[in-house]
Amino acid sequence: MDQKKISSTAAAIKKHRYFLISTHVNPDGDAFGSSLALKFMLEALGKKADIVVDSACPKELAFLPGTDKIIYKPELKQRKYDAVFCLDCGSYDRIGKVQKIAPKNAPIINIDHHETNTRFGAINWVDLNVCATAELILAMAEHFKIRISRQFAVCIYTAIVTETGHFSFSNTSLRSHMIAAEMIRYGVKPSIVSYGLVKNKTLSDLKLTAKVMGRIRVTKDGTTAWSSITADDLKNPRTVPGDSQEYLHHMVSLKGVHASILFRQTPEGTVKASARTDGTISASKLMLKFGGGGHPRAAGCTLKASLKNAQKRVLDAVKRMLGR
Ligand code: 5GP
Ligand code: MN
Predict the structure, then answer these.
(1) Which of 26, 137, 183, 197 is the most exposed place for a label (fewest CB within 10 A)?
(2) What is the pLDDT of residues 128-146, one digit of tens each?
(3) Residue whose CA is closest, atom 19 of ligand 1?
(4) Ligand 1 first shell, C-beta below 6 A
(5) Contact between residue 298 and residue 278 where contact means Cβ atoms under 8 Å apart
(6) Rounded alpha-carbon distances, angstroms, from residue 118 to 85, 123, 153, 293
(7) Quick one: 234 and 145 in the same domain?
(8) CATH code, domain with 287
């Protein structure tokens, strides 16, 4: 753990009173888990904080304590924040419209674990060795010696579990298990978290999963799999796509496949691409070519292109990187 970064972040917390906390659009377990845990920690220190995100609450994360107080419409909140925390964001634009309400003169504290992080903050605490941003928030709480509440522990535990793919990805370590075990000591019930993460689908959600699975294509050489979610798929208001992880999970399980990509048409007319690799090629290097970023084995980008064109560009790049 980088003690200098812990100290500079702690100094910023001591100096300021009212914080804006934000995280990336399409938030995942680490994004919400680390943001909520940080808010609980700041409040325990007698500070004030608002979490503002440019996305609706994903239903698989709605069970997390404190999601009812998150502000999901950035334009409604113009407050005099003293400092801005950006959590789990590889670049500043990842907070979307929240950029508009972040006071220009407020320092940005960038806490993250993405190798592609652009160091956009006044403080840049970017640690590639942790399995999740939430690990850094826990380190901060330990620095301040705050009492770990069950609510705080649930947020940290959920972040670790989701970000390691339930202790299956390459970021799974002795430490990730140790932290999870420690959080259980603070009152987390693993089965309740799993229930919250999984048991939230409607029938139309499952039908969407079936559709996306039915569209999986694999290159002739068997190395690359892809599928798509179209704008049409989302016309039914009861259908809410899960996070990309959910769909990619199945493509990744295909024997011999090195790279899996999910293409998703957005309401803005762009295409969001999410990539997972087995380490043969770097997902973040692939996505950097298209202005995105992420981790070596999980990364994403947004393309201003038609679905067909986006697929062609990304799949061509994968082919070149695989040397085929
Ligand atoms: P997902 O594919 O599940 O959306 O994201 C996989 C990983 O890549 C996550 O760590 C996510 O934060 C990162 N990521 C996804 N999309 C982008 C993007 O457009 N830009 C950057 N910098 N990172 C992204
Ligand atoms: Mn993360």
Answers:
(1) 197
(2) 999 999 999 999 999 999 9
(3) 301
(4) 24, 26, 90-91, 94, 114, 116, 243-245, 274, 292-295, 298-302
(5) no
(6) 15, 12, 29, 10
(7) no
(8) 3.10.310.30
